[in-house]
Write a structure and sequence with these properties.
The structure is a homodimer of 308-residue chains. The first copy, chain A, has 308 residues and is α/β, with parallel strands linked by helices. Chain A has a single domain (3-301), classed as Ribokinase (UDP-N-acetylmuramoyl-L-alanine:D-glutamate ligase). In chain A, 37% of the residues lie in helices and 23% in strands. The first copy, chain A, is built from eleven helices and 14 strands. The first copy, chain A, has helices spanning 29-37, 56-64, 128-137, 151-156, 158-165, 175-182, 187-197, 236-251, 256-273, 280-283, 287-301, and strands at 3-7, 11-17, 20-21, 25-27, 43-51, 72-75, 82-87, 94-100, 120-123, 144-148, 170-174, 201-205, 211-215, 218-222. The first copy, chain A, has a nine-stranded mixed sheet with strand order 6-5-1-9-10-11-12-13-14, sandwiched between helices. In chain A, strands 2, 3, 4, 7 and 8 form a five-stranded mixed sheet that branches. In chain A, α2 (56-64) links the parallel β5 and β6 (72-75). The first copy, chain A, is globular, with a radius of gyration of 18 Å. At the A-B interface, α7, β14, α9 and α11 of A face α7, β14, α9 and α11 of B.
């Protein structure tokens, strides 16, 4: 059983969409990544920080999914990171209503000793220096390090971001962020420039338009499943990354062909995430749900053209 | 050899992109559709109208591609339809600088007698009443009628558009137009509403984000090939439709499985169209170019996940 280290936020989210709104519910990048990765037979550990206000039932949920939580520090007198946002009618854009860093402001991640030889490391969206400190704690070189990031760090910590990007095998980034990071509009050219920054594999997430995986001159495209309705996009990108990382950890195969499958698994799991608020859908996800949807992805994309 | 009737504009275009600009060059929906369909072993006839200013060499080009031009009326004292546009930096939006209808204002299409039993009819973007008059001239029921249209006709001839939509098997339409036609943001819901208007098959073109084919509860997704640079998007949608229609006419197979292939051929040909100004790339396209790019589409989209 492969080990997977996941660092990222474990948080409270409050979400408004055209379909309704929530109070503070379970959120955070590491939460979504962990829930997605838990679909695979991997030994995953989440490294994060929460406050004394964080409910035991949320921690129990992670433990129920066989996720190790010994790397989640609880600061009794502190408050959990909180994010609140409102999605616009098209669900493709959102306004941030509140960001309260709270305990996250002083987060010094500590990878549990038992996971410092993990084969796969997933660096969820966080300050690049925090991501770097996790890498530095690894005692054996991981087979694969995957980094997710966002435009915020390009605006305020670009040099640090470049340093951590240089150290990773795979970067997952959305289309606008890829353009911002490289100054290139064409995603093909942007991916090439990001390759030159370090990562051998570049995954560009395009939301409802799917995801592209680049490696040297190869490119693979996984569509998003066309859905009648996107109920809440929160966590879809993290779920995609968690599915990708979990599948790689499970198979231990880092060939391009296998990474295509990882992208398909990521898209498949993300297609569930958006069906309900927050983690609601991911909590109840069965392996037969996943199988059924993988078959939908096959019929969505596979064709038979025989060339004479 | 199947017969294919194509009705649409044969025109002059003048195009500005960030890469340069052209004088009046060969353009028009039927031109792009015809050039794309000519990649297949079909007997295609273009039904259109031009003025006395239309160069013989442009007509010769179509004849060289084995396209029947007996249905292209030439009005000696008239001027050819002219369109001019300027693309923005992102190449996804454009301003129309000029539209001179000229001879198109009085276009009464006449399908050549030898083609009134054609198996496939491709109604390129034109006033819906003009499209309807072509259908009315068919003496045997075509195996498949494909309609392309645009938002302009929704704004100014919606009732007539609904009448012709009701008569066709396949509609090709872009995402914004599908939303305008149905008032639905979700393309899945929009496709269902368009089904209810008549067409059994709905193709929604999403430009650089590919195309979706809907039929009852089935959906197929063909990505656009990720390109380093899109030089000129003019005619890409018509080229897609022409590839689709040509492949259906060649194979004579209107099953959903075969229509998937038609969509892939359409995307493949459209990926060439945008590489140069106007029809330049399509004029020189060889079948080995097409085979090579179909293989790129395969490696772009095909994966092997074995479900236990």
């Amino acid at each position: 059983m492969s080990k997977l280290v996941i660092v990222g936020t474990v948080a409270f989210d409050a979400i408004e969409t055209p379909f309704g709104k929530t109070d503070k519910i379970l959120g955070g990048a590491a939460t979504f990544i962990g829930l997605a990765a838990s679909q695979f037979d991997v030994d995953a550990s989440v490294v994060s920080i929460v406050g004394g206000d964080f409910p035991q039932e949320y921690l129990d949920l992670l433990v129920d999914k066989n996720i190790d939580i010994s790397g989640i520090e609880m600061v009794k007198e502190g408050k959990t990171f909180f994010w609140s946002g409102r999605y616009h009618n098209d669900m493709n854009s959102r306004d941030t209503l509140a960001t309260e860093l709270n305990v996250l402001a002083d987060f010094k991640p500590e990878v549990p000793q038992a996971y410092r030889d993990a084969e796969v490391v997933m660096l969820g969206n966080l300050h690049p220096l925090v991501q770097m400190s996790v890498l530095e704690q690894m005692e054996t070189k991981p087979k694969m390090v995957i980094l997710d990031t966002m435009n915020f760090w390009m605006d305020c910590a670009l040099d640090d971001l470049h340093k951590v990007i240089k150290k990773v095998d795979v970067i997952t980034i959305n289309d606008e962020e890829a353009r911002q990071l490289t100054g290139e509009y064409s995603l093909v050219v942007a991916a090439r420039k990001i390759h030159e920054m370090g990562p051998k594999y570049v995954v560009i997430k395009k939301g409802e338009h799917g995801a592209l995986l680049f490696h040297e001159d190869n490119v693979f495209y996984a569509p998003a499943l066309p859905l009648e309705e996107v109920f809440d996009p929160t966590g879809a990108g993290d779920t995609f990354a968690g599915g990708f990382a979990g599948y790689i950890a499970k198979t231990g195969d880092i060939s391009f062909e296998n990474m295509k499958n990882a992208v398909i698994y990521g898209s498949t799991l993300a297609s569930f995430c958006v069906e309900k608020f927050g983690t609601e859908r991911m909590k109840q996800l069965s392996s037969s749900d996943v199988h059924q949807r993988l078959n939908q992805f096959k019929s969505l994309t596979q064709f038979e053209i025989v060339l004479e």
